[in-house]
Amino acid sequence: MTDLGPDDEETPPNLARVFDHYLGGDDNTLVDREFAAEVDQVLPGMGDLCRGHRRFSAAVVDHWCAEGIDQFLELGAGLPTVDHVHTRARRVHPGARVAYVDEDPVAVVHARRVVARHEGVSVLLADAGDAETVLAAPEVRDLLDLTRPVGVLAVGVLHYVPDAVAAEAMRRYREALAPGSGVAISHLTGVGRPDLHTWSTINHGGWSYAPTLRDPEDMDPWLEGLELVGPGWASAPHWVPAGAVPGAGETASGLWGVVARRPDRRG
């Protein structure tokens, strides 16, 4: 368990800590748990959505580790707790290097406390939609070797990014990746989930930006030039690297997930 600082108990609810609470973690406060209880009155499935994102992330990291990838960039990482990327990857690759990115100053301060004792792990305060800044930052540039494969995770973050910004950011991240690298995205959808349509129009009072609900046809351009892995677009919590996987509409998970790979150079 990571101790919260004395000021954390006095801050407003924080998205990263609320997410940690839904995952069953200890890095949250009473105000976060009380706020989660209020959210549950509007969207009883919020906990399932959070756990769905994490199941997807875990399956992807396991797949990439099996493929030999030992470097990871997580966009919109929140708090690196509850079996997060560096913990999971290092079960296979003890020297795995992980750069976390988040734009929430409170989450970043706390995240840096969480990983302070871990060599080869960094936390960058930046907007994941500003790919130029992210890729040029020492926390990323000096930690990850972009001439080797890297796994980029955009799990539960792009639905808070405007269309044009998301498209340009994903183009820049794709271009920066070496052959053999991977990109993984999980994203909210209203397919089979009318409650998410309602939630996306609610004034969230500053807790988060209202999410944009997208479907594969909206996001396919983000993967231009990449090869889909396994089932392609699928219900994120059910994603596996091989075999058939139902879509988000069939499972009503509220989440699309996809994994793609930058092809090896030919010739």
What can you tell me about this protein's structure?
It is an enzyme of class 2 (transferase). Strands 1, 2, 3, 4, 5, 6, 7 and 8 form an eight-stranded mixed beta sheet that branches. This protein has eleven helices and eight strands. It is α/β, with parallel strands linked by helices. Helix 1 crosses helix 2 (30-42). Helix 4 links the parallel strand 1 (71-75) and strand 2. The longest helix has 21 residues, at 46-66. It has a single domain, classed as 3-Layer(aba) Sandwich (Rossmann fold). The protein has helices at residues 15-22, 30-42, 46-66, 85-89, 105-115, 131-136, 138-141, 163-176, 194-200, 216-219, 248-251; strands at 71-75, 97-102, 121-125, 151-155, 182-188, 227-228, 234-235, 255-261. It is globular and about 50 Å long.
Characteristic terms for this protein:
single chain, 267 residues, alpha/beta, Rossmann fold, eight-stranded mixed sheet, 8 strands, disordered N terminus
Compose a concise summary of this entry.
By secondary structure, this protein is of the alpha/beta class. The chain has eleven helices and eight strands.
